[in-house]
Amino acid sequence: MFERQIGNRTHRNRMWMMLMNSSMEKKLILVFILLVIIPITGISYVSYQNYDKSIESNSIDYVNELSAQLMSKLDDYIADMKTIATIPLYSSWPSNGLQNLLEDPELDLQKEREIDDYIQLLSTFKKGTDSIYIFDNFGNIFFKINNEGLRKDIKERREEWQNLARSSKAQPVVLLSTKEISSTANSRYVFSIIEDIKNTTTMESVGTIVIDTNVNVIEKEVKGLDAVTKGKTLVIDEQNNVIFDSTKQLLTKNLSDDPAVQKAVGKQGDFKITINNETFICTYLQSEETNWKTIVYIPVHYLSKTAAVTKNFAIIATTLVVVLALCISFYFSSAITNPLRRLTKLMKKIQEGDWNVRFHVTYKDEVGVLGNTFNTMIKRMKELIEEIHQTNIRKRVAEMEAFQSQINPHFIYNTLETIRMTALLNDDSEVSDMIYVLGNMMGYSINRGNEMVTIREEIEHLGHYMQLQNYRFDNKFDFQVTIPESVYTFRMIKLIFQPIVENAIFHGLEKKKSDCRISVSATLDQGTAVFVVADNGIGMDELTLQRLRRQINEDHYDQVSKHKIGLRNVHQRIKLQYGPAYGLVINSQQQVGTTVTFSLPIGLLEEGYRDEDSHRG
């Protein structure tokens, strides 16, 4: 089992490697098949399936709508027939009133004519009325019949109808369809509305009215429904007795055991059922007025005919699209890979040392852009090779100059130390102190192995510088430092403060005779340490200030005044070390003074401290 799994994995890896090592053209064709042909085929299949389901769903919705219309018309018709059946309760016509006529046990020609006229009037109220019968309590029957003749079962059903009417609690009763056998031997199907006629004063029953309606009124509506569904329609009552059947085979039968009727549970719904090896979609809807239920049978094979046409069309269309897609994929894959093949050949020539190759660009597409980039890259690489060659030459010259420049400061530093010791031997402490301070400054400056220093070391160096300046100018300068103790431990690149202070003395304070103040302060603000070097010198006008700001950003030293090189050097070093967002910000006002502000990121200051410690370790 384990060996088989390893074998399968090895086989998959081998197949994957074969695919990855195949040509770009084959990969493009494969990708085209995966991304276009397979999805087209899949979408076509899913679309057909969804269309098939959509036909069923739309058919069910449409049939439900037609069923609702059918049931609404039946409800309206039954409601109208019930209204007609209740007219005798409230009508004052004939002149003596129908109730009075029915209460009179005597039967004469005048009474019979008045009741017949009344029945004749009622029969005109609603189209589809087949027969109207009125019974009194004395065994008399009054009726209006159609051309089919009088019902044979009228005497047998009279008592049944009267009992139903009297037990209906003053509500009309609707009876299911019955096969009416007339005296002419022709049969017809009707449903009946029965209403008890009461004396409105005593509320005693004085007779019964029965209105027969031919089921043809239902058939006319159902024909339109069956024409749409190509199936059949049933109308059943609450006891599952068939009121109407469009096939005329189930009229008056009870279908409680019928599978479709058993599934038609609730007010509305649909389901599938197979009857005699034929599948139907059945939809049903129950009336709120009569509680009758309409069941519509839709043959699935009829719906499938439309879907089959769509399926055949989809298969043909998909096949044509797939063939066309394959042709297009071969053409485009070849058009894309041919320039890449040419580019590959040129790269092989470069690998062999031929730098004079060029890719001939035909189009401005991605391959054209790649070709232009290739040509630019070859040109730039040739320039870089030459530039590297020249840089190496300049680097060797610079290293030699740096070595020579380092000799002189060391020599001067050692000489100063000798002079200092001589001054001490001659008891000249002031000269000795000056030389000592100058020596410390020289040692701080020429120590090339330690470019990162603490803020404390940088401020101490600045203090030595100010001490020498006060020796020179007879303690002319008031120098103050205001820096939080926590900032002193941060590390920064050295020789930042001295050039700024030197510029302040040279340009702002040297010409003043007294009250010469220089201050250095620091604050912490949202992840940065903000340093401010301020003087109360003569300051600058706006034009001079703008020129100074522009000069410290110049690229070449020869464009900068010799007195501004120190500030430019500090500005450029800060930007190189901490990023272009940092550097010197200079503000000045004539006869007020100048401030130089710069910010350094605390994270990098702390990181510099850690890096320096690890360097020392």
TrEMBL record:
<keyword id="KW-1133">Transmembrane helix</keyword>
<keyword id="KW-0067">ATP-binding</keyword>
<keyword id="KW-0547">Nucleotide-binding</keyword>
<dbReference type="Pfam" id="PF00672">
    <property type="entry name" value="HAMP"/>
</dbReference>
<keyword id="KW-0597">Phosphoprotein</keyword>
<keyword id="KW-0812">Transmembrane</keyword>
<dbReference type="Pfam" id="PF02518">
    <property type="entry name" value="HATPase_c"/>
</dbReference>
<dbReference type="GO" id="GO:0000155">
    <property type="term" value="F:phosphorelay sensor kinase activity"/>
</dbReference>
<dbReference type="InterPro" id="IPR050640">
    <property type="entry name" value="Bact_2-comp_sensor_kinase"/>
</dbReference>
<feature type="transmembrane region" description="Helical">
    <location>
        <begin position="313"/>
        <end position="332"/>
    </location>
</feature>
<keyword id="KW-0902">Two-component regulatory system</keyword>
<keyword id="KW-0418">Kinase</keyword>
<protein>
    <recommendedName>
        <fullName>HAMP domain-containing protein</fullName>
    </recommendedName>
</protein>
<dbReference type="InterPro" id="IPR003594">
    <property type="entry name" value="HATPase_dom"/>
</dbReference>
<dbReference type="InterPro" id="IPR036890">
    <property type="entry name" value="HATPase_C_sf"/>
</dbReference>
<dbReference type="GO" id="GO:0005886">
    <property type="term" value="C:plasma membrane"/>
</dbReference>
<dbReference type="Pfam" id="PF02743">
    <property type="entry name" value="dCache_1"/>
</dbReference>
<dbReference type="InterPro" id="IPR033479">
    <property type="entry name" value="dCache_1"/>
</dbReference>
<keyword id="KW-0808">Transferase</keyword>
<dbReference type="Pfam" id="PF06580">
    <property type="entry name" value="His_kinase"/>
</dbReference>
<dbReference type="InterPro" id="IPR003660">
    <property type="entry name" value="HAMP_dom"/>
</dbReference>
<keyword id="KW-1003">Cell membrane</keyword>
<dbReference type="InterPro" id="IPR010559">
    <property type="entry name" value="Sig_transdc_His_kin_internal"/>
</dbReference>
<dbReference type="GO" id="GO:0005524">
    <property type="term" value="F:ATP binding"/>
</dbReference>
<feature type="domain" description="HAMP">
    <location>
        <begin position="334"/>
        <end position="386"/>
    </location>
</feature>
<keyword id="KW-0472">Membrane</keyword>
